[in-house]
UniProtKB/TrEMBL annotation:
It catalyses: Fe(II)-heme o + 2 A + H2O = Fe(II)-heme a + 2 AH2. It comes from Limobrevibacterium gyesilva. It is found in: Cell membrane; Membrane. Interacts with CtaB. The gene is ctaA. This is Heme A synthase. Its cofactor is heme b. GO terms for molecular function: heme A synthase activity; metal ion binding; oxidoreductase activity, acting on NAD(P)H, heme protein as acceptor. One of its GO terms (cellular component) is plasma membrane.
Amino acid sequence: MPFDDRNFPAAAAGAPDAALRNRRLVATWLFSVCAMIWVMIALGGATRLTGSGLSIMEWAPLSGTLPPLSEAEWQRLYGLYQQIPQYELLNKGFGIDGFKQIFWLEWTHRLWGRLIGVVFLLPLIVLAVRGAIGRHLVPRLALLFALGGLQGAVGWFMVASGFFPDSTTVSPYRLVVHLTLALVLYVAILWTGLSVLRPVRVLSGTPGLRRLVKLSVVLVSLTILAGGFVAGLRAGLDYNTFPLMDGRLVPEGYARLVPFLRNLTENVAAVQFDHRLLATVTALVALATLAAGLRARVTGLALGALLALGVAVAAQYALGVATLLLVVPPALGTAHQAVAVLVLTAAIVSLHALRRVS
Ligand code: HEM
């Protein structure tokens, strides 16, 4: 969908100042939602890494907003938790106080999700009614809201896989679907906000630079996907050396599963190796992209975004290695998950700033 003045009725009516104000207002709102999704992704990482994600066995989008308000309600929820294998296998006998500790993080994660929905929907209605957003943009934003609701359902679909017999964690596949949908939503809202703010397409950079930026976006996305499988399989708890894995560059047993494709998602050694390899290629390509941008003398937002990409990817690489060497402490693992979103953000803003005029 093109972003032009038809999306901002005040401009069409010949009021450029009002249109500019509307654009800034709408963009600020969309970027605020992005910031909330970023916090949500970090909270999700902390929830997973502290083993809190399976503590609420019900999916109650409305009534679940309130935490337990009586001792009887705490006991009821604790009773439900005692029925799942994670309690039997990992937390047996940790008592109501232990249960409360893991409950609060998962509850906060869900509450934050509901808040994002409210912060998206209410301004959407108000801005659309006041004519601050035009007819052309409303369906796209409504679709994004519906996708947000779907993400809540996918979250529950993921959590439900943790209740299977003998299971103490959720399915890695469902975890990756949940992470991917969160990032698709994040990128779509970010891109929409950027397009609202900068509807005029100014061509800058060279075709070679634009190709490198696109490659960076693809590689960052693939590395994040691979990271999802490392997290889902808890593959960071093994091979805690760098750069060698058990004394070898390519770990023994890389291709031990048949058919071969299963190794990419189910074999701890291969999943961790692939993430390392992809991260290394991503970091090199992102730094080459920054160098190409400096050579092409890009300025303004494009320069800022490319510099941010270089810094973020280097920090993320270092964080990844530290997380691995220290055997995934929750604080570092959460930071690694959060900074991944910043790397993606820098790559997407670079792409937007350098996009081609059609
Ligand atoms: C461009 C660089 C990198 C990106 C974008 C990236 C991204 C990610 C993401 C998104 C996750 C978690 C996904 C989730 O929780 O669902 C993850 C997990 C992980 N990554 Fe990276 N990563 C990068 C570099 C590295 C490097 C260089 C290493 C180590 C050599 C590393 C080691 C790990 C480990 C051990 C985990 C699992 C942590 C956990 O269980 O929470 N990463 N990565």
